[in-house]
Design goal:
mainly alpha
């Protein structure tokens, strides 16, 4: 752009910024009405691209060049490349872990050990512990979460509730772990230190998680009656007949967890886990692999190599005669994630257009101008982070953008920056998974095989935590003031 064209660029009005948002809401509503649970298999992507087009037109009318908008789209999509690579490798991991007997073994032991009445609460706590140790909700869902969904399916449990329990636990650990990237990002953006941030989050996160576990416990006793003992026996018998069930096929899980705890990045850790699944399939499930290939003309080594290759890109198909088990374990492969990849690319395009043309900034500043009190500031931070998750489709942007915009306002009101970092996590990190086109929502739906709209009402922890954070803000509970502030809150933070 020339200097003259830069000067010609006008800031968008709030009314202009609301046009693509209104169009997106209308198109998404129509998508759900017309296509139901298949709305994320193409219709939502078209809605996002059309809304991005509307945002681009507004940007062009305000003096932006198409070149600058296009560059912004490229930058926006590039931000999501890490997530897209992880999605693809998770698809391969699912396929190889089924073929290796890893997922079948976890399902088998889960059916034997986990009673249906305690499943939801147990799943939530198990995922919380794993995520706390690894710092990754994605890794937790992509490993333990897959098995837990399998157990829930085999037991005839409510899959929305099961996925909600898995996600609630995974995001508790992700939010509170010093190993988590968002837990490190939020204090860095807000201007506080990591451990002050974590200690401050205990006030909102602890009660929220306790309430969530209580609700999952109650759900376990009042939910519809699960599968009969006979049906479960049929599933376990089929698992033993089709796979070599035992502790050795669980080695890929141990490999991934060790790598993540040792701070190996998610993509290489999951890729190694996929290859570990291939090794276990060859060593412990050779007959299953050869039967899957079903080509008598191939030598045994070639058949083994071909079978592992197929499941990595196209997933596993089971034909055991047990329809429930066949449906449960016929999945995986990179190809299964392509629709989700498409959704994320379309969503990041929309978010990038809104950010590049200044429309996100216009909305955020309008919210900021209306803030007068501590409770209003905390609530505005929460709502802006949530809104950014919807509009920008990425949890990192939902932390960085509001953090950048609200930091000075917190300083003006003499609020400790750890209040800002906590609000960013309460509103940004936790609600990202509730948006179908957000990278987190798309990942969880693709990995667990449960649509976002199906599990979102049951993500109790993710829904309760922002509400508690808002109540604390308006009640001055656990609101830390800067040391030289003479307007101390009635209830100060005791960190």
């Amino acid at each position: 752009m020339t200097e003259r064209s830069v000067d010609a660029v006008r800031a968008p009005s709030v009314a202009q910024a609301l046009i693509p948002i209104g169009l997106l809401v209308a198109l998404l509503a129509a998508s759900v009405a017309l296509f139901g649970e298949d709305s994320s298999s193409g219709p939502n992507q078209i809605a996002l691209i059309l809304a991005a087009g509307a945002g681009a037109v507004i940007g062009l009318r305000n003096g932006h060049s198409w070149h600058s908008i296009e560059q912004g789209i490229s930058r926006g999509i590039s931000v999501s490349m890490g997530a897209l690579l992880i999605l693809l490798v998770v698809g391969s991991l699912i396929g190889t872990w089924i073929l290796a007997g890893t997922v079948p073994s976890m399902i088998y032991y889960g059916l034997v050990l986990l009673a249906p009445s305690v499943f939801y609460a147990a799943a939530c706590v198990i995922c919380a512990l794993i995520s706390l140790a690894t710092g990754s909700s994605w890794t937790t869902a992509g490993t333990i979460g897959i098995a837990l969904i399998g157990i829930a399916t085999a037991q005839g449990l409510h899959l929305g509730l099961a996925a909600g329990a898995i996600i609630s636990g995974a995001y508790f650990g992700d939010k509170m772990s010093a190993l988590s990237d968002t837990t490190n990002l939020a204090p860095a953006v807000a201007g506080t230190d990591l451990f002050s941030h974590i200690r401050h989050m205990v006030w909102t996160t602890g009660p929220s998680f306790a309430v969530a576990v209580t609700l999952f416990t109650i759900a376990g006793f009042v939910a519809p009656t699960p599968a009969t003992t006979e049906a479960l026996a049929n599933v376990t018998d089929a698992l033993q007949r089709e796979f070599a069930i035992g502790p050795l096929p669980l080695l890929p899980v141990a490999v991934v967890l060790i790598l993540v705890v040792r701070r190996v990045p998610a993509f290489p850790a999951l890729l190694v886990g996929t290859l570990a699944g291939v090794a276990c399939a060859v060593m412990f499930q050779p007959n299953t692999v050869i039967a899957f290939v079903a080509d008598a003309t191939l030598s045994r080594p070639v058949a083994l190599a071909k079978g592992c290759w197929i499941v990595m890109f196209d997933g596993f198909q089971l034909e055991s005669g047990n329809s429930a088990l066949d449906e449960l374990l016929s999945r995986g492969g990179m190809a299964s994630m392509l629709t989700t990849v498409w959704l994320i690319i379309a969503a990041m395009m929309f978010g990038a257009v809104m950010e590049t043309t200044g429309q996100l900034d216009a909305l955020a500043r309008r919210v900021l101008a209306a803030v007068r009190s501590t409770g209003g500031l905390i609530s505005a931070t929460l709502l802006t982070s949530m809104g950014t998750n919807v509009l920008a489709s990425d949890q990192y942007i939902s932390i960085v953008l509001p953090g950048r915009m609200f930091r000075a306002k917190y300083e003006q009101q003499r609020l400790d920056p750890k209040n800002l970092s906590r609000a960013l996590e309460d509103g940004g990190t936790l609600t990202s998974v509730l948006v179908p086109w957000n990278t987190c929502g798309a990942y969880m739906a693709g990995t667990l095989g449960v649509t976002t709209f199906a599990y979102a009402p049951f993500c109790f922890f993710n829904l309760i935590n922002p509400l508690i954070a808002a109540v604390y803000g308006w009640s001055n509970i656990s609101i830390a003031r800067l040391a030289n502030d003479d307007r101390l809150s009635a209830v100060s933070d005791q960190n």
